[in-house]
Amino acid sequence: MKLIKIKLAAILSLFLIAGNLTGCKTTENASNKEKGAVIGAAGGAILGAIIGNNTGKKGDGGELGAVIGGVVGGAAGAIIGSKMDKQAEEIKEEIPGVDVQRVDDGIVITFDEDGGIFFETDKYALNTQSVEMLNKLSNVLKEYPDTKVAVVGHTDSTGNASYNMELSRDRALSVTNHLVVNNGLDRSRFTTLWYGEEQPIADNSTASGRAQNRRVNLAIVPNEKMIEEAKQEAGS
User: Fold this and answer.
1) What total number of domains does the chain contain?
2) What CATH number is associated with residue 192?
C-alpha cells in the first residue's frame, strides 16, 4: 500500500522502544487492541500517516499534533483500540475500496484518485461519487459520536505553490462542510487543515505520483470523553 504500509515499520519500532515488552513474532501478530496497550505514550505514527514527519504546519484549527494527541497506553488503550477497530471495520464495509487504516489510537482514511473523493482540475466542488461516499462515512461517524475528526487537504506540485495552498484549503473545507452542513454532524468535532503541495507522499515527477499526492485524509481519533470513560472502565 502507500505511505501507511511504509509507516508500519515505524509502528513496529515503537514496540522495541517501549522496553522490548514483546518479541518480534508477537509484535507481528499483535492486534490493534494489543498495540494500544503496548505503545503507550510513544505514539505519533498517525501524524506520519497523514503528513509525513512535519507536524508544525497550521490550518484553521491549529497544529495537527494538538488535534491527534498521544496514544493512550495500558488497559485503557486496549479498550480504545477495540472500539476503533470496530469503527474501522464498519467504514470498510460501508465504503469498499477506500484506503482505511488503523494507526495508533486512530483511523486514517485516504481519499485520492484511486478510490474516494475526486475533484476536477482546479476545482473544489464535490462530485456525485464523492458526495455518496461522504454520506456513507457520516452514517458511521454518527454511530460513534465520541471521536474527533481531522480533515487534511493536499495537492500535487503542479502550478503555483500559493495557489495550491488555497486549493487544498478549499477542497478540505468542502469535505468538512458537507459532513457538517449536509449530514448534520457537530462542527466542534472537526478540525480542517491544508498543506498544499508541501507534504507529498509520492514522486511528483510522475503522473501516478501526482495522483497520490492529490488527496484528502481524514483522521478519526478518540475525544476526551472516550478516553476518560476508557480509563474509568480500566480502573486507572
Assistant:
1) 1
2) 3.30.1330.60
Domain extent, residue 50, equals 3-234
CA 219, CA 47: separation in Å to the nearest integer? 9
**Residue located via cell numbers 507529498:** 200
Confidence of residue 1 (pLDDT cuts 50, 70, 90): very low
Per-residue pLDDT tens over the stretch 103-137:
989 999 988 776 667 677 777 888 888 899 999 99
185-235 residue pLDDT tens? 999 999 999 999 998 888 999 988 888 888 899 999 999 999 999 999 998
Q: Characterize 179-216 residue by residue with b for buried, 16 or more Cβ atoms within 10 angstroms of its Cβ, and e for exposed.
A: bbeeeebeeebbbbbbbbbbbbbbeeeeeeebebbbbb
Pick the closest to residue 4 from 87, 112, 82 (CA basis): 112
User: 99 and 2 in contact (C-beta within 8 Å)?
Assistant: yes
Q: Using only the alpha carbons of the chain, give its radius of gyration.
A: 17
Do 109 and 89 meet the contact criterion of CB atoms below 8 Å apart?
no
